[in-house]
Design brief:
5 helices, 5-stranded antiparallel β-sheet, 258 residues, 7-stranded mixed β-sheet, 22% helix
């Protein structure tokens, strides 16, 4: 049975004018696309690249969580490029906005790095950086795992069942999803490097699934989410006025799901 027809050339054509050294690599299997790009960066290989694996054996998400799916059931890829923004805060939100807008009008965003649909996780984003030899420039690696089919939950600790893109668009496959979102993601990260998060704030607000909802923080505090500030920090009213949460180590969920 032939494999998917990945739109590598179309992605390259859409991005190469902005990133002349950009390349697209597709491999049948790897431990983790993000891990591989971080290994390359630490070895001094910092050319812009998109790396896609048809199957990951050791995929991972934020806070060290494992992320595994059956081959063909998800889209798993990472891309890396050198970047030197004035402020790094808000990058994962920009990636989320670009992905959600490219996928479907009903896809929402849960701060700081998830795509949601009907209070269920559709995709996760992982952002990592490695130093380069070029001053304050860093090599940023953005990994995205997007459920195509709806997974069966295997972790009883999950507070909400996962969602799959085929629930919104029956028949879509990983190759079609990649063709839809890859170029917008890369171009969004380039734009973030020049302009930061502020120009994306209203677009994030339009898809913010936590806004004006009761939330429970992983450190035990509770409050009401009030959107994000110009740096991408989550504003939570805990009864003593809005507090800005910057830490990527804080998990936030609607209180009804916690």
């Amino acid at each position: 049975m032939p494999g998917p027809r990945w739109p590598a050339e179309a992605i390259w054509e859409a991005v190469s004018a902005v990133l002349p050294d950009f390349s697209v690599e597709i491999v049948p299997e790897i431990d983790s696309t993000s891990s591989e790009l971080m290994r390359r960066a630490r070895a001094g290989r910092t050319e812009p690249v998109l790396l896609l694996a048809e199957h990951q054996t050791a995929g991972r998400g934020r806070l060290g969580r494992h992320w595994q799916t059956a081959p063909g059931a998800a889209l798993t890829f990472s891309f890396g490029l050198p970047l030197a923004p004035e402020e790094w805060s808000g990058l994962s939100l920009v990636v989320g906005v670009a992905a959600a807008e490219a996928l479907h009008p009903e896809v929402g965003l849960k701060w700081p790095n998830d795509l949601w649909w009907q209070d269920r996780k559709l995709a996760g984003i992982l952002v990592e950086t490695a130093g380069t030899a070029q001053g304050r420039e860093r090599f940023v690696v953005v990994g995205l795992g997007l459920n195509i089919a709806t997974p069966q939950p295997t972790d009883q600790a999950l507070r909400a069942p996962p969602a799959g893109l085929r629930e919104l668009e029956p028949g879509i496959d990983a190759a079609a999803a990649l063709g839809r979102i890859a170029a917008p993601l890369l171009l969004a990260v380039q734009a973030f490097g020049a302009q930061g998060f502020a120009p994306w704030r209203e677009r994030f607000a339009a898809r913010d699934v936590l806004r004006d909802r009761a939330v429970r923080l992983s450190d035990g505090r509770q409050g009401v989410a009030r959107g994000v500030d110009a740096q991408g920090a989550l504003l939570v009213d805990t009864g003593q006025g809005p507090q800005a949460l910057h830490s990527a180590e804080i998990s936030v969920r609607p209180a009804g799901l916690a």
